[in-house]
Amino acid sequence: MASANAHKAIEIAEILAGHDIQPRPHDLGDIVENEKTLEGNARLKAVAVCNQTGSPAVADDTGLEVDALGGLPGVRSARFAGESATDVENLSKLLDEMRKVPDGDRTARFRTVALVVFPDGHEILAHGVVEGTITSSPSGSGGFGYDSIFVPDEGKGLTFAEMEPEAKNIISHRGRAFRSLAKMLED
Fold this sequence. Notes:
Elements: H1 6-15, H2 38-53, E1 57-66, E2 73-74, H3 87-98, E3 107-117, E4 123-134, E5 150-152, H4 165-171, H5 173-186
Antiparallel strand pairs: 1-2, 1-3, 3-4, 4-5
Helix pairs in contact: 4-5
C-alpha cells in the first residue's frame, strides 16, 4: 500500500478485502505529489513503494472536480487551501468559493485513479467516478476530506459522511476504481 493517508488505507483495505495488502513501509519518506494528473501522482507513489520494497505496490489519487469552479480543486484537492492544509481548511475554502453558486449549479464528481506497479515496470490502471452535488454546509460525521459536503447522485440524498462505510464503498469513486483494479488483477 502506497497511501500514507490512514483513512484512505482503511477504505482501500475494506474494498480489497481478501487480497493481501501490506501497509506502507514506515521508513518511506514523504512523496511529493507534484504531477499535473491523478494518474501521475498515483504512479509516483506506487513506483516509490515498489522501488523500496521490491514488491508490487498499489496507489491511488483522487480529485473532487466541481463544475462551477472549472473542475477545481481536481488534482489539488488535498492541497486546495495550501500545501499543508487540513481537511477542514480545504473544505472551508471550497464552501467559501461556492457560497454564491445556486443549488442547480453545484454539480461535481469525485474521480479516482488506482494503479498497481510491478517490479518489472508493468502496471495496471483503473478509474472510478461518482457524480453528485456539493451541499452548502457539512453534514454527517463519517468519512474524511470532502465527504461531508458531497451528495452522490446514487446516495438517496445523503452525503458520503452520512453513509455507513459499506454503503459508501458500493457507490464511491474509490470503491469503483479498486473493484475494477481487483478484477483486472484476478483476470
